[in-house]
Amino acid sequence: MQDSRINYVVVGAFVTTMIVALIIVISMLAGSSGSTDRYFTVYSNVSGIKFGTQVFYEGYQVGQVEAVTPIDRGNNQLQFKVDIEVQEGWKIPEDSIARAQVSGLLSAIANDIRAGKSQSLLRPGAEIRGAEPSNMFAALQDISSQFGDLSANSIKPLLDNLNKYIVVLGDSTVAHLPKAMADLEKIAGSVQRAMAMIETEVLKPQNRDHLDSIIANFDTTSTNLAQVSTGLEETRKTLTESITKVNGMLDSSSGNVSEAARDLRYTLDTIARYVDDISHNTDATARNMAEFSRAIRENPGLLLGGSPQKDQEGGK
């Protein structure tokens, strides 16, 4: 009897221990073990978010979603309040952003909190700013639906219009092709006549001889120009040498030129000092010559040393 009681006690203790361990394991797996702080965020779409959805902070699990509550904003705008529980004392900057996203192709959706850079921290019960969920499969579904609409509403009508244009273009081409071919034959005939005229009129032997003469003249002219250019270059060299020699002569005779200039200045100063006397003597000489010429005209015998001729009326 005593042994059976001991067995019952052992079995009961084992079962109780297993139940407690199971509760602890479930709590740990659910991320709700220990004391927590509650926050909330608001989304426009909560696809895949429900009670127990894991909450990560920069990829590290810190809690889980506790509840999802619809909020009527008015004007037919419905949003959802998502209450989350995180570990007690976990520091969350006030500019952090919460976003529902899928980390992998086979992963369940999770609520990920991206840490902000603010020094101020959110208090428990505050709102974490939410961003629209990023779901690759939902985005692919939206793209596929948009592509279906594009194919039905845009691409197909475009192809129909292109087919119509191609049919119209083909019919028009078939209708106008004979006329176009006839015009091409006329153009080809005109080109042939023009080429024949060029060969017979423009490129006749006389004109070819003239062209050969013109080309030969151009060659001669270019040769003459080359020779003239060579002569000009030699002339330039000669002028340069002459200028150099003249400069050398001026540099070497600069002393003689200065001395000649001083002598000329002295001579001019001397002439300026005696110019009054010279002019006075010149005037006197001019008066004497005038008197002498007058006397000779009156009595030419004075040139032979005779006396002056007496007045005839006085003699009578």
Provide a short characterization of the protein structure.
This protein has 316 residues and is an alpha/beta fold. It has helices spanning 2-30, 136-202, 205-252, 254-298, 312-315; strands at residues 36-43, 54-57, 60-72, 78-87, 97-102, 109-114, 129-134.
What does this molecule look like?
By secondary structure, this protein is of the alpha/beta class. Among the domains are: 31-134; 253-298. The chain is 61% helix and 17% strand. The chain has five helices and seven strands. It has helices spanning 2-30, 136-202, 205-252, 254-298, 312-315, and strands at residues 36-43, 54-57, 60-72, 78-87, 97-102, 109-114, 129-134. Strands 1-4-3-2-6-5-7 form a seven-stranded mixed beta sheet. A hairpin with a 6-residue loop joins strand 5 (97-102) and strand 6 (109-114). The longest helix has 67 residues, at 136-202. The chain is elongated and about 205 Å long. It starts with a helix and ends with a helix. The model is unreliable at 312-316 (pLDDT under 50).
Strand order of the largest sheet: 1-4-3-2-6-5-7
Unreliable segments (pLDDT under 50, ≥5 consecutive)? 312-316
Q: Percent of residues in beta strands?
A: 15-25%
**Overall mean pLDDT:** 79
Series of H and E elements:
HEEEEEEEHHHH
For the termini, the CA-CA separation is 229 Å
Number of separate helices: 5
Largest sheet: 7 strands, mixed
Notable features of this structure?
elongated; 316 residues; 7-stranded mixed sheet; 5 helices; disordered C terminus; single chain; alpha/beta
Topology:
Elements: H1 2-30, E1 36-43, E2 54-57, E3 60-72, E4 78-87, E5 97-102, E6 109-114, E7 129-134, H2 136-202, H3 205-252, H4 254-298, H5 312-315
